[in-house]
């Protein structure tokens, strides 16, 4: 009996040690999945394939990394809301390449189709950034670096004269929600509002979801969590960030999410709403991790449009100027209600 218990204890100990070694040595490769193994980083298509008007944008982060982005506009002079969109991983969250990657991967064609519909439904512009190490961007991903990338994208938009910089809204899905939450918290005067979709509470908690034996050692707040949290270099603790955001937040939750438990979105909302009375939580019963926008149909787009109308409205002086100049057709195109 003693011998059996010793074997069991050694086995459990070995499993923990192996998990720790894997986490320390390879965590960036496990957290960030710019492209699935065997596939190319090169863009399969560009927005022009979908007949979208866009600019190729090249930025430099504050630490000197060269970044690529697409700025996709409804039409050249549209001054509707500008959505700064932060993407999910190629195959979604931590260790996703081990878990049904082929069924959860959202390739660039699928994402661009979503953006095409977004432009039509919301009458907006969309800025899509490739994080360092993703797409055509240089460098290697890390939480510290991607935070700098997001700031570079926002700073670029704020310097543009062809958009209404008072109507910049950050939209983050999955990993992108963690990125967007940090950016929104850090820029209360530059970001009008935040939209979070199917976002996790933290990478620490996701480690326990995807590798259950780790939940005993990793999870919770990055500062007050479990014993091995200090080993995680990219904790992306969104649960610690949302409570500090002052801007309005829209939470979009797909209840069939197969990657991030919907309870994570509920916890994020609960944390934010205790300090921010401009939070809205909307559930989509058939929405999965990558297709909530598709499963949600008209309700999905109408929810976002109403949120934008309330929290990123057109300036009255702009509306007055448009009417005085006789450009009602332009104005109605840019700010018409959802049909």
UniProtKB/TrEMBL annotation:
A Pfam family hit: Peptidase_S9
Coiled coil ranges: none
Domain Peptidase S9 prolyl oligopeptidase catalytic: 147-310
Annotated GO MF terms: palmitoyl-(protein) hydrolase activity; serine-type peptidase activity
GO cellular component: membrane
GO-annotated biological processes: proteolysis
Transmembrane intervals: 7-26
Keywords: Membrane, Transmembrane, Transmembrane helix
The UniProt record lists the keyword Nucleus: no
Matching InterPro entries: AB_hydrolase_fold, Peptidase_S9_cat
Gene3D superfamilies on file: alpha/beta hydrolase
Family annotation (PANTHER family): ALPHA/BETA HYDROLASE DOMAIN-CONTAINING PROTEIN, PROTEIN ABHD13
Name the record gives this protein: Peptidase S9 prolyl oligopeptidase catalytic domain-containing protein
Species annotation: Arachis hypogaea
């Amino acid at each position: 009996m003693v011998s059996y218990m010793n074997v069991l204890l050694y086995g459990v100990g070995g499993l923990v040690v192996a998990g720790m070694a894997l986490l320390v040595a390879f965590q960036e490769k496990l957290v960030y999945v710019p492209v699935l193994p065997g596939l190319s980083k090169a863009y399969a298509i560009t927005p022009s394939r979908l007949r979208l008007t866009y600019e190729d944008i090249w930025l430099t982060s504050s630490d000197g990394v060269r970044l690529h982005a697409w700025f996709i506009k409804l039409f050249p002079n549209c001054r509707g809301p500008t959505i700064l969109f932060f993407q999910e991983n190629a195959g979604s969250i931590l260790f996703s390449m081990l878990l049904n990657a082929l069924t959860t991967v959202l390739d660039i064609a699928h994402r661009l189709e979503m953006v095409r519909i977004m432009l039509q439904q919301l009458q907006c512009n969309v800025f899509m950034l490739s994080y360092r190490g993703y797409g055509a961007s240089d460098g290697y991903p890390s939480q510290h670096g991607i935070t700098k990338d997001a700031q570079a994208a926002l700073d670029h938009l704020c310097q543009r004269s062809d958009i209404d910089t008072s109507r910049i809204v950050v939209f983050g899905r999955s990993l992108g929600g963690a990125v967007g939450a940090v950016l929104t918290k850090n820029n209360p005067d530059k970001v009008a509002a935040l939209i979070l979709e199917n976002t996790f509470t933290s990478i620490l908690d996701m480690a326990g979801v995807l590798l259950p034996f780790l939940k005993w050692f990793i999870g919770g707040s990055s500062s007050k969590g479990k014993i091995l949290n200090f080993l995680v270099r990219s904790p992306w603790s969104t649960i610690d960030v949302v409570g500090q955001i002052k801007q309005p937040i829209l939470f979009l939750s797909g209840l069939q999410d197969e990657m991030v438990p919907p309870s994570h979105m509920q916890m994020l909302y609960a944390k934010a709403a205790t300090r921010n009375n401009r939070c809205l939580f909307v559930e989509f019963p058939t929405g999965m991790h990558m297709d909530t926008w598709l499963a949600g149909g008209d309700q999905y787009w109408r929810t976002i449009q109403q949120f934008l109308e309330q929290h990123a409205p057109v300036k009255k002086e702009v509306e007055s100027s448009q009417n005085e100049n006789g450009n009602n057709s332009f104005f109605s195109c840019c700010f018409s209600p959802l049909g």
